[in-house]
Amino acid sequence: MALLNRTDTDGIAHLELNSPQNLNALSLDMLAAFQREVDALQVDPSVRVVIVSGAGHVFCAGHNLKEMQAARQDSDGGTAAWQHLFERCAHLMQSLQALPQPVIAQVHGIATAAGCQLVASCDMAVAAETTRFGVNGVNIGLFCSTPMVALTRNIPRKQAFEMLTTGRFLLASEAREIGLINRAVPDEALAAETLELARTVADKLAVAVKIGKQAFYEQAQMTTREAYSYTGAVMVENMQHPQTDEGIAAFLEKRPPDWG
User: Fold this and answer.
1) What are residue 15's DSSP bridge partners?
2) What pLDDT shows up at residue 260?
């Protein structure tokens, strides 16, 4: 059984974590399968949007704790294995944001620890109303330090710190209020609502979205002055694209753009 399933329809790639018996845990094998698909998407111009979901009853429950505990039997007590695991996971999370295509998390059940990190690392997220979100490693004595990186870049500091230090789970409505997800929808409408959002984005000019996504993350690390200088140059680059010329001309002429 494949750990990750991919299906492509009309320019939308759907990646489904497929280890429901392990709550879609981000084991080393799962991370490797996930990374292979992300690397393939990086050079696949036929795909305009990516959806990430989980098979079974939950989205993702974080790392595989049994695998992590087994590493204690290594000669170094597990140090090298754990370092490798967290480096692989961090690389995947950054790879998602480096993709030219927007990535939408389709979340249900629970998204905990590294699973919550995955939601925060996607560009957008739609969740079923009954979904719960947590960075609850502190409850078992393991502070969610790596998930914290993505979390604190999505939500206000005080809310993040409370989640990290109390282990409290948020309902989807709370996650939406603080900006962790875009939409909380009825459970039965989750797939349809996510697909609708994906189709809306997929209908835009792909090169403009690609340029914009890269600029979105780059400017976020800059001062305001640096960001305006950088994004001004990005807009000039975007304006120089022939399809942008066509899009603006079509708007002025009150007709649909012919982007081919």
Assistant:
1) 6, 52
2) 74
Picking from 117, 115, 119, the residue whose alpha carbon sits closest to that of residue 51 is 119
Tens digits of per-residue pLDDT, 88-100?
Answer: 999 999 999 999 9
Instruction: Give the integer Cα–Cα distance in Å for 180 and 155.
Output: 6
CA distances from 120 to 172, 210, 247 (A): 13, 19, 32
- Amino acid, res. 154: N
Q: What is the pLDDT of residue 210?
A: 96
List Cβ neighbours of 174 (8 Å cut-off, separation of 6 or more).
none
- Strand 132-134 to strand 170-171: parallel, antiparallel, or no bridges (unpaired)? antiparallel
Q: Give 169's contacts (C-beta < 8 A, 6+ positions apart).
A: 110, 112, 132, 133, 134, 136
pLDDT, tens digit (0-9, with 9 covering 90-100), for 165-216: 999 999 999 999 999 999 999 999 999 999 999 999 999 999 999 999 999 9
Q: How far is CA 257 from CA 52, 244, 253, in A?
A: 30, 9, 10
What percent of the chain clears pLDDT 70, i.e. is strictly above it?
A: 100
Please count the CA atoms within 13 angstroms of the CA of 252 that sit on its side-chain side. 6
Q: Where are the alpha helices (DSSP H) in 99-205?
A: 114-121, 145-151, 157-166, 172-178, 190-202
Confidence at residue 203, expressed as pLDDT on a 0 to 100 scale: 95
CA separation for the pair 119, 153 (Å, rounded): 12
Query: What CA–CA distance (Å, rounded) separates 241 from 102?
Result: 20
Residue type at position 130:
T
Tell me the C-alpha distance between 47 and 25, whole Å.
Answer: 26
Q: Which pTM was predicted?
A: 0.96
CA dist 177 and 154 (Å) reads 12
